[in-house]
Amino acid sequence: MSHQAAIKVENLTKAFNGKEIIKSCNMFVKEKSIYGFLGANGAGKTTVFKIITGLLSPTTGKIEVCGMEGSKQREDILRNIGSMIETPVFYEHLSAESNLRIHLSYMGIQEDDKSKRIMIVGSICLGLGILALLSGIFQLITV
Fold first, then answer.
1. What angle do CA 49, 39, 83 make, to 5 degrees?
2. Measured between alpha carbons, how far is 14 from 60 in angstroms, rounded to an integer?
Protein backbone atom coordinates (compact mmCIF):
# COMPACT_ATOMS: atom_id res chain seq x y z
CA MET A 1 0.00 0.00 0.00
CA SER A 2 1.48 3.36 -1.06
CA HIS A 3 1.09 6.43 1.16
CA GLN A 4 1.55 10.05 0.19
CA ALA A 5 4.51 11.62 1.99
CA ALA A 6 3.84 14.73 4.07
CA ILE A 7 7.63 15.12 4.46
CA LYS A 8 10.31 13.31 2.53
CA VAL A 9 13.99 13.94 3.23
CA GLU A 10 16.66 12.11 1.22
CA ASN A 11 20.39 12.12 2.02
CA LEU A 12 20.25 15.52 3.68
CA THR A 13 23.59 16.98 4.67
CA LYS A 14 24.30 20.39 6.20
CA ALA A 15 27.76 21.79 6.81
CA PHE A 16 28.74 25.03 8.53
CA ASN A 17 32.28 26.28 7.90
CA GLY A 18 33.23 22.91 6.44
CA LYS A 19 31.98 20.92 9.44
CA GLU A 20 29.10 18.51 8.73
CA ILE A 21 26.34 19.04 11.28
CA ILE A 22 23.73 16.87 9.54
CA LYS A 23 25.01 13.71 7.81
CA SER A 24 22.89 11.68 5.38
CA CYS A 25 19.56 12.32 7.14
CA ASN A 26 16.60 10.42 5.68
CA MET A 27 12.99 10.83 6.81
CA PHE A 28 9.61 9.75 5.46
CA VAL A 29 6.54 11.07 7.26
CA LYS A 30 3.25 9.70 5.98
CA GLU A 31 0.39 12.06 5.30
CA LYS A 32 -2.04 12.32 8.26
CA SER A 33 0.38 10.70 10.70
CA ILE A 34 2.23 11.66 13.86
CA TYR A 35 6.00 11.40 13.74
CA GLY A 36 8.45 11.74 16.63
CA PHE A 37 11.82 13.26 15.79
CA LEU A 38 14.04 12.68 18.81
CA GLY A 39 17.66 13.37 19.59
CA ALA A 40 20.02 14.80 22.16
CA ASN A 41 20.63 18.52 22.52
CA GLY A 42 22.81 19.63 19.63
CA ALA A 43 21.98 16.60 17.49
CA GLY A 44 20.59 18.77 14.67
CA LYS A 45 16.81 18.46 15.04
CA THR A 46 16.23 22.22 14.80
CA THR A 47 18.64 22.50 11.88
CA VAL A 48 16.74 19.80 9.97
CA PHE A 49 13.42 21.60 10.53
CA LYS A 50 14.92 24.92 9.50
CA ILE A 51 15.99 23.25 6.26
CA ILE A 52 12.56 21.63 5.77
CA THR A 53 10.85 25.03 6.18
CA GLY A 54 13.37 26.82 3.97
CA LEU A 55 15.01 28.93 6.67
CA LEU A 56 18.34 27.25 5.84
CA SER A 57 19.56 25.69 2.61
CA PRO A 58 20.88 22.13 2.60
CA THR A 59 24.47 21.48 1.60
CA THR A 60 23.26 18.36 -0.24
CA GLY A 61 20.11 16.29 -0.35
CA LYS A 62 16.50 16.57 -1.39
CA ILE A 63 13.47 17.79 0.58
CA GLU A 64 9.81 17.40 -0.37
CA VAL A 65 6.87 18.69 1.65
CA CYS A 66 3.35 17.74 0.56
CA GLY A 67 4.77 16.70 -2.81
CA MET A 68 6.48 20.08 -3.36
CA GLU A 69 10.22 20.42 -3.80
CA GLY A 70 11.74 22.39 -0.94
CA SER A 71 14.37 24.28 -2.91
CA LYS A 72 11.97 25.40 -5.65
CA GLN A 73 8.57 25.79 -3.98
CA ARG A 74 9.34 27.31 -0.56
CA GLU A 75 6.51 29.88 -0.61
CA ASP A 76 3.93 27.29 -1.65
CA ILE A 77 5.13 24.97 1.12
CA LEU A 78 4.90 27.72 3.75
CA ARG A 79 1.31 28.49 2.69
CA ASN A 80 0.37 24.87 3.41
CA ILE A 81 2.10 24.14 6.72
CA GLY A 82 2.25 25.44 10.26
CA SER A 83 5.62 25.52 11.97
CA MET A 84 7.05 26.78 15.21
CA ILE A 85 10.77 26.31 15.62
CA GLU A 86 12.03 27.23 19.08
CA THR A 87 10.37 30.43 20.40
CA PRO A 88 7.53 32.19 18.55
CA VAL A 89 8.12 35.83 17.58
CA PHE A 90 5.43 38.38 18.40
CA TYR A 91 5.12 42.11 18.89
CA GLU A 92 4.55 42.36 22.64
CA HIS A 93 2.99 45.84 22.40
CA LEU A 94 0.22 44.52 20.10
CA SER A 95 -2.81 42.41 20.97
CA ALA A 96 -3.05 38.72 20.10
CA GLU A 97 -5.52 39.63 17.33
CA SER A 98 -3.16 42.22 15.83
CA ASN A 99 -0.26 39.76 15.92
CA LEU A 100 -2.43 37.11 14.26
CA ARG A 101 -3.47 39.57 11.52
CA ILE A 102 0.20 40.36 10.80
CA HIS A 103 1.10 36.66 10.56
CA LEU A 104 -1.89 35.94 8.33
CA SER A 105 -0.90 38.86 6.06
CA TYR A 106 2.58 37.59 5.33
CA MET A 107 1.07 34.15 4.69
CA GLY A 108 -1.04 35.73 1.91
CA ILE A 109 -4.41 35.17 3.62
CA GLN A 110 -7.22 37.41 2.31
CA GLU A 111 -8.99 39.82 4.70
CA ASP A 112 -12.29 37.86 4.78
CA ASP A 113 -10.47 34.64 5.64
CA LYS A 114 -8.41 36.42 8.34
CA SER A 115 -11.58 37.24 10.29
CA LYS A 116 -12.78 33.62 10.07
CA ARG A 117 -9.45 32.30 11.36
CA ILE A 118 -9.36 34.85 14.18
CA MET A 119 -12.87 33.74 15.21
CA ILE A 120 -11.67 30.11 15.38
CA VAL A 121 -8.71 31.03 17.59
CA GLY A 122 -10.97 33.25 19.71
CA SER A 123 -13.49 30.46 20.29
CA ILE A 124 -10.69 28.13 21.39
CA CYS A 125 -9.40 30.77 23.80
CA LEU A 126 -12.79 31.37 25.46
CA GLY A 127 -12.64 28.00 27.19
CA LEU A 128 -9.11 28.49 28.52
CA GLY A 129 -8.14 29.82 31.92
CA ILE A 130 -5.75 32.76 32.15
CA LEU A 131 -2.71 30.56 32.92
CA ALA A 132 -3.33 28.37 29.90
CA LEU A 133 -3.90 31.47 27.81
CA LEU A 134 -0.66 33.09 28.90
CA SER A 135 1.44 29.96 28.51
CA GLY A 136 0.00 28.53 25.34
CA ILE A 137 -1.99 30.90 23.16
CA PHE A 138 1.01 32.50 21.46
CA GLN A 139 2.15 29.06 20.36
CA LEU A 140 -1.35 28.31 19.05
CA ILE A 141 -1.43 31.60 17.14
CA THR A 142 1.98 30.88 15.62
CA VAL A 143 0.91 27.61 14.03
1. 25
2. 7
Domains located in the chain, CATH noted: 5-73 (3.40.50.300), 96-142 (no CATH)
Rounded to the nearest angstrom, the gap between the alpha carbon of residue 15 and the centroid of all alpha carbons in its chain is 22
Give me the chain's average pLDDT, please: 77
| One-character DSSP codes across 106-121 | HTT--HHHHHHHHHHH
HSE, side-chain direction, 13 A CA sphere, residue 14: 22
Longest dimension (CA), the chain: 51
Residues 89-126 pLDDT 10s = 666 777 777 777 777 777 777 877 877 877 776 665 55
DSSP summary character for residue 16: E
Summarize pLDDT for 62-77 with one digit per residue, the tens: 999 888 888 788 778 7
Assess contact for 44 and 81: CB atoms under 8 A.
no
Contact status, residue 59 vs residue 53, Cβ threshold 8 Å:
no
Q: What is the rounded CA–CA span in Å between residue 17 and residue 32? A: 37
The overall pTM is greater than 0.90? no
